[in-house]
Amino acid sequence: MQLCQSKMPARDGVLEMGRARSLTIPPVDNIRNTDINPYLVRPTSFEIRPSTNLNVTRPPTLNPITPLQKRVRNQFEATHTSDPIVNHVNKSSFMPEQSFDRIENKDASISKIHQLPNQHPGLISSNQQNHGQAPQLQFFPSQDPTPSQFSPGSSLQLHDASISTAMSNPLHGIQFPSPVQSFANNPFIRYTSLISSLMSQGVISLANQLPAQDSIGTEFNPDILKVRHESPANALYRDLPRQCKTCGLRFRCQEKHSSHMDWHVTKNRMSKSCKQKPSRKWFASLKLWLSGAEALGTESVPHFLATESIDYEERKDHEEFAVPTEEDQSTCALCGESFDEFYSDEMEEWMYRGAAYLNAPARKTSAGMDRSQLGPIIHAKCRSDSNLQCANEEDTRRKRMRS
Amino acid sequence: MAYGGAGPVGGSGSASTIKQVKLERESELRIEVGNDAPLRLRLLNGTAEIFGTELPPEIWLNFPPRLKFAVFTWYGATIEMDGATETDYTADETPMVSYVNVHAVLDGRRSRAKASSPDDSGSSQGPRVIVVGPTDSGKSTLSRMLLSWAAKQGWKPTFVDLDIGQGSITIPGCIAATPIEMPIDPVEGIPLEMPLVYYYGHATPSNNVELYKVLVKELAGMIERQFTGNAESRASGMVINTMGWIEGVGYDLLLHAIRTFKANVVLVLGQEKLCSMLKDVLKSEPKVDVVKLQRSGGVVSRNAKVRQKARSYRIREYFYGLSNDLSPHSNIANFSDLFVYRVGGGPQAPRSALPIGAEPAADPTRVVPVNINRDLLHLVLAVSFAKEPDEIISSNVAGFIYVTDVDIQRKKITYLAPSAGELPSKYLIMGSLTWLET
Question: Ranges for the Clp1 C-terminal domain (chain B) (predicted)?
Fold first, then answer.
């Protein structure tokens, strides 16, 4: 009950301070606008305090920090624009005793932020605290603070201000147990912040913490080159403990070793699936070499081979069209170009490569049909696109029937 | 990979030809496989490597006839061999310590390049190594070691082969480049999966020095473009293998290559005079290290006849594979479907013997059309990626064909191609490389 009653005079004091300011402030619009902000914040802070006293639980104790931080920032901003107001308030002498104590607290906070000379010689403890914190304040500007770094600093000042308030007002100390708990976390926060700041600036790097390998340097010194050092051979053997038992390749970590074993499996599978002898492929074009050399890796080898294999099959399918050579016709009836002749071991006669009869069904052989019904000889590729699609469809059907 | 299964069971009744060799630390077993039969070899215990590629434990490897190689061990090993060898012996004095120290320095430079900002093209460039020296000094072998060690540690260096007489990447007569992403197989050699190949057409640069220079410049330009777009490749750097011609015009071509590829590490093998000359001429170049290295005693000398045969085997390998595991295709084309060109060279006809207005073929880089006739028989022609004839000299090639027959009456040419189907291009480049399929 006493605590609740003590709240009432404080509110009255706030109202009285407001009146006092209005009496002393000149009628300037800018000053009035800035003056309104403090009033909007204070009622909120007062409303939270009763709940803090009534409910002694952890979640409520965290709430007061936010409005207090806002107050500190507002004071910081207000001070820049309304220093004359503070001076006027200090000069007034008709304040109640409790209101005067609150004014002293505010002065202490302001002096800590700006390191202003203390106008109240009687507050010896405030002087000591202010002096002790000066080096810390100087620490942050030297780091060229960013918004993310300012927040920890503000928090630090806030906690110190709270402690100062507790010392000045023993009765109010009971109302601020949480700042003490928050203070314990400050060293960790500052340490993390410092490390992050230094890393972002490139001053230090976690990589630098790795132990430097024993190296014989990057210069060709004849005396060094002649002598045996353990590090070069160790780097090729003992520093790579995992070895592939199939091909002898060594690895440092399990991941690369596993992917290499997968590469062996894929390679073996490809060589087994290819029943007939493979052929040497044509070299890559310059364009492919400039781009493919980058993509070509240990894991990419099967992919590259698979891609080439697909292209090879497509070309081979087209080349399977062939008809026996004829003296009466050596050029395509559609495009007029000459046919390529080759000797087919299977048919045991000379053939036109990639050729078909115009009237023949879209299949590779024309067995069973009379020559007079087939029409002239053409390139299979010279058929229309729709015919090509029919040919592909028939090939697909035949393959399905086989499988 | 030419890996065999488990070895035969040691039956008590059969005469076993298996031989075991125990190698002390830092020693190597030097082997020349016989001419007629392959050799099987495996690592029994310890660790060992062949030219920078480590042997898998207890896996039999099959080495084809005539192959020459060395098995080296850093910590000691026991090797088992099955089959006859032309010769095999153990050596305990090798330059391997200095070779691997060179690798360690290069590895340090690669790490430094990788750690630097990708925006700084200078510092993010890995070492650009060129290996020089006289013939049979072990240039190809040292190149393979440096490439395999780098790949073993996760780098992806670019191998550049300027030796047109040997053909480390593909057939002789070519200069080529390829990324090396895994240690080089001790049997198969450089993998032929993603090469960039320019066709010079001859086994010695004296046929057309200017053409050789143009192709070297073209190849270097393309590698520079690749480095620009690939930070990992750029940090890994390059290893350049060169010809053994180090005097006169050969020396000039060596300097041309060093400057064109902007090499900053010059490894000189077994030649005091060459090392001294290069140090003197390159001392004005900023940040170029000239390092003298000892030649390995295991390098085998090869005479002209051996080289010629090696070239034939290499061409055959292109079409059929090292162990006859590839299937080439025979094709027939009309004369009118193909266009064969020659680049410069050849004897110059006096202007009085030419038709009025005709120019003699004096320009060594001029592209000259060639009539298809019996002269093309048994020639190896390159299939150019050029879209127009004048692009032939600046275009890479898609592969090669081998002319097996020329029918003048029917105007048809029969050729062997690596794979079936149409040629990637109708423009073919003629050189002086011939092959008699046996």
Answer: 326-437
Q: A279 to each of A112, A175, A276, A311, B195, how far by Cα in Å?
A: 85, 88, 9, 13, 17
| CA A10 – CA A97 distance, rounded (Å) | 10
Q: Residues 6 or more apart from B365 whose CB is under 8 A from it?
A: B210, B211, B214, B343, B344, B393
Position B244 confidence tier, pLDDT thresholds 50, 70, 90: very high
| B336 is annotated as contributing to ligand binding | no
For the ranges A129-133, B16-20, B262-266, the lowest mean pLDDT is seen at: A129-133
Q: How far apart are CA B410 and CA B277, in angstroms?
A: 58
Measured between CA atoms, the residue of chain B closest to residue A228 is B97
What's the pLDDT tens digit per position in B387-415?
A: 889 899 899 999 999 999 999 988 999 99
Chain A, window 220-279: residues with a beta carbon less than 8 angstroms from a chain B beta carbon: 220, 222, 224-229, 231-233, 235-237, 240, 243-250, 276-279
For residue A225, give the nearest of B55, B59, B101 by CB distance.
Answer: B101
Question: B58: closest CA among B76, B84, B75, B40?
Answer: B40
Q: What are phi and psi of B123, to 5 degrees?
A: -80, -20
Q: Residue A304: what pLDDT?
A: 34
What pLDDT does B66 receive? Answer: 80
Are B69 and B51 in contact by the 8 Å Cβ rule? The answer is yes
Beta bridge partners of B178: B159
pLDDT along chain A (403 residues), means of 10: 39 38 40 39 38 39 40 39 39 40 42 40 40 37 36 36 40 41 44 54 42 68 87 92 89 86 82 77 91 48 37 41 74 75 67 74 56 74 49 46 43
pLDDT of B275-302, one tens digit each? Answer: 999 998 998 877 799 998 988 999 888 7
Domains and CATH numbers, chain B: 18-91 (2.60.120.1030), 95-115+125-293 (3.40.50.300), 327-349+359-434 (2.40.30.330)
Give the pairing type, strands B238-241 and B158-161.
parallel
CB-based contacts of A271, cutoff 8 Å, min separation 6: none
Shortest distance, CA A342 to any CA of chain B (angstroms): 6
Amino acid at A146: T
Asked whether the beta carbons of B196 and B219 are under 8 A apart, the reply is yes
Q: Got the DSSP string for B99-160?
A: HHHHHHHHHHHHHHHHHS-TT-TTTT---EEEEE-STTSSHHHHHHHHHHHHHHTT--PEEE
pLDDT of B11 above 80: no
For chain A, the first-to-last Cα distance in angstroms comes to: 94
Q: How far is B395 from A288, CA to CA, in rounded Å?
A: 13
Q: Cβ(A241)–Cβ(A235) under 8 Å?
A: no
Q: Which residues make beta-bridge pairs with A352?
A: A323, A341
Q: How far apart are CA B361 and CA B358, in angstroms?
A: 9
Q: CB–CB of B289 and A282 under 8 A?
A: no
Tell me whether residues A218 and B108 touch, CB distance under 8 A. Answer: yes
Domain boundaries, chain A: 312-387
| Binding-face residues of A in 340-379 toward B, CB within 8 A | 340-343
A19-28, A278-287, B67-76, B151-160: least confident range: A19-28
B247 is in an annotated binding site: no
**Residues pairing with B46 in the sheet:** B77
| Long-range CB contacts (within 8 A, 24+) of A134-143 | A143/A197
Q: What is the pLDDT of residue A293?
A: 55
Q: H or E stretch including B41?
A: strand B39-46
Residue A374, min C-alpha distance to chain B (Å): 26
Phi, psi (5° rounding) for residue A86? Answer: -60, -45
Sort out which chain A residues have CB atoms less than 8 A from B24's CB and list them. none
